[in-house]
Design brief:
Helix content: 40-55%
Distance between the termini: 42 Å
Radius of gyration: 17 Å
Strand content: 15-25%
Number of strands: 6
Low-confidence stretches: none
Shape: globular
Length: 192
């Protein structure tokens, strides 16, 4: 069930470790490419690692963010599981702009909260994201693709509720501990 805390704005959330492989650079570039309408009607939440790793990258990202309107984003820092759940429930879309990724736990957590995902088409992400159903797949390192999807979301070209339901159903049916245990049990039974 959605908790709306940020009225009248489309809320996009990025939950990652601040590392070059996680692609935040391309998301921040995309934010700068948005139309005035999209910037006025969007809020980007950044949650995740405040560690001292990749200080140079963190400085680069902060420099890019400082060039954007301050109403466009909020830096939330590290969140505990309960805080993260509440932020997911008050968001509309999660963004995973990774340069490389196996399968993102943050994406599946967001999907379980009913959020569609904008993700790069890398690693295992195409296995959990069905384009235009549970989210959107874009090319890696392509801020233009990310900005284009965000513009279309703000212009209400997608039924986010329906996509969020599809994302939730996928995760509950295919990635829950119960479904994984059933698959593992079947493997053992087939072997024996």
């Amino acid at each position: 069930k959605k908790i709306k805390k940020f009225d009248k704005k489309f809320v996009f959330i990025w939950v990652r470790r601040l590392a070059p492989t996680k692609g935040i650079k391309y998301l921040v570039e995309a934010m700068g490419q948005l139309s005035v309408k999209a910037q006025s009607n969007s809020l980007f939440l950044f949650a995740g690692s405040d560690s001292d790793d990749y200080v140079w990258y963190k400085n680069e990202i902060n420099s890019k963010l400082q060039k954007l309107p301050t109403h466009l984003y909020k830096l939330l820092g590290n969140l505990n599981q309960e805080e993260l759940r509440d932020i997911f429930l008050s968001s509309d879309v999660t963004i995973i702009p990774s340069v490389m990724e196996a399968t993102s736990l943050a994406a599946m957590e967001a999907m379980s909260c009913g959020l569609p995902v904008i993700s790069t088409n890398v690693g295992g992400m195409p296995e959990i994201i069905t384009h235009n159903s549970t989210g959107w797949l874009v090319d890696s390192k392509n801020s233009n693709d990310i900005a284009s999807i965000i513009e279309r979301i703000v212009n209400e070209e997608y039924d986010l509720f329906k996509m969020g339901e599809s994302a939730n159903q996928y995760v509950n049916q295919k990635k829950s501990w119960k479904s994984i245990a059933t698959k593992v049990e079947k493997i053992y039974r087939d072997i024996l």
